[in-house]
Amino acid sequence: MQDIRFMRAALREALKGYGCTSPNPSVGCVIVRQGRIIARGWHRKAGGPHAEIEALNALPDPTLAKGATLYVTLEPCCTHGRTPPCTEAILAAGIRRVVVGVVDPHPAHAGIGLEKLRAGGVEVVTGVLQEACAHLNRAFFKWITTGIPWVVAKAGLSLDGRITRPPGEGQWLTGRAAREDAHRLRAVTDAVLIGAGTLRADDPSLTVREVTMPEHKAQPWRVVLSRGGGPLPLGAKLFTDSHKARTLVYINKPLTEVLREIGNTYQVTSVLAEGGGEILGALFEANLVDEVCFYMAPLLCGGGQVAVGGRGYGKVELMNTEYRRIGRDLRLHGIVRK
Prior knowledge:
The structure is a single chain. The chain is built from eleven helices and 13 strands. 28% of the residues lie in helices and 24% in strands. α3 (86-93) runs parallel beside α4. By secondary structure, it is α/β, with parallel strands linked by helices. The longest helix has 14 residues, at 2-15. An eight-stranded mixed sheet has the order 9-8-7-10-6-11-13-12, with helices on both faces. The protein has a five-stranded mixed sheet with strand order 2-1-3-4-5, sandwiched between helices. It has helices at residues 2-15, 51-57, 86-93, 112-119, 130-136, 138-146, 176-187, 196-202, 237-240, 255-265, 277-285, and strands at residues 28-33, 36-42, 69-74, 97-102, 123-126, 150-157, 191-195, 221-226, 247-251, 270-275, 291-296, 318-326, 329-336.
């Protein structure tokens, strides 16, 4: 029970960096001595100190590390990247016991860091709150093992599944509170994806505006898919605003290739697919959607564009579903069962 309690504390530290560390994972760490947390740390940004180093540096006296227990949500790294290996720092500090939430799936690390710690005489325990620790970094885990980003399908829709209102009724289906929540989702995502039809119809900004951007986080990449190859409005915000350098356009390119390219070239680990219905349908048809976040407004629109189009793709089942009222709207969130 004590290990679970302190791993929860490490998870709280990891959440402080959620959405800010890409393409690195979000990691938290606490150091415990005689049943008390004596230091905390979390990974703040890619290229910065890892959570274990932050915690070791936070010790009021470095000698307190000797014989202490270190709790970390992800296996400590054991290779030289932009920072030195955390395993070496842990061994040098004299940590006696390391408790790990989940093993790092990175091919260069996967279990190797744990073996180095054991070889150095450290007691290693793994799998404490493993599911929660893995869920926190679900996007990183998929990207590092497949090269393809984690895809979240997001839409605001009416009760009858429409994403457009009848002419003359205005643009928005959902209320302000739901739109702010959607911006929070955008703020922790690496890229936002839309189709050319949405670009032409709505001239969206696809930036984070309604909420404060996390520290060290750039505006998300804006990705436009043109499946028909027709002309795009060059005066659109995506091509003229201060973030125009973060706009990518792909014409007549398969979805899987687009995702793989932005994953490899731009280190995009997560994508928020905001539509329209044709793009969302194509993503579901290709089995590329990993997570769903739909905001349902208490409206019946009739006609208009459906939230998820396409020719049909069989049953898509969600697990770990959550329903939350946000203002007047209802948010449905879940992970796609593969």
